[in-house]
UniProtKB/TrEMBL annotation:
This is PolC-type DNA polymerase III. PANTHER family: DNA POLYMERASE III SUBUNIT EPSILON, PROTEIN NEN2. SUPFAM superfamilies: Ribonuclease H-like (SSF53098). It comes from Actinophytocola glycyrrhizae. Keywords: Exonuclease, Hydrolase, Nuclease. Residues 13-186 form the Exonuclease domain.
Amino acid sequence: MTTPVPAALAERELIVVDVEGNGQTPPEIIEFAGLLIDGSNGADGAVRIEDMRSWLIRPQKPIASMVTRRVHGISNADVDGCPPWSQVALEIAELLGSRILVAHGAHVEYRVLGAHLPAWRPPLVLDTLRLAKHVWSDAASYSLDKLVEHARLDLTAVTGQRPHRAGYDTWCAWQLLVTLINDGALDWPGLVKVATLPGSTASTEPEGGLW
């Protein structure tokens, strides 16, 4: 399954992300997924689920049983033998680069990734939750899973994952972003106006869950 990049995102370099955590304070990332959106998505300009990269990460503190049961289903056994954050941080930082960050409820990803990567700051953060509230002001719920139902998004490309896994939620957020841009008939300035996470804009704008 492929998804064409909307005209509003033409020539923009974005990364749609989701992180899952261990339920501790402060939270540690145990799963990260990132989907690159730019001209590297192939000659046809379409985004494929194969473009996504993801990591399972072994935290220093164990995963709280409550989040395993109620949220993402990732257990301590699942991450046993996976690399710690120190071994994947550089790869993830390079993937994020200076791209515009996109996430659902993006304050979580922005805050937690910033704590894990103190030297990183994206030029802009776009929140599909804020965007959904603008475009679908009458939606019964703005949780990601309910918005997926509301929009009847096609998630057949996601196999072997469940809701609240990083790869699944990242693909959902991308599909949701495309649908909201199209339904709202938004161009780039309009998208930035309604979807930017407050306090996330860099000094120079680029040209052109539960734990």
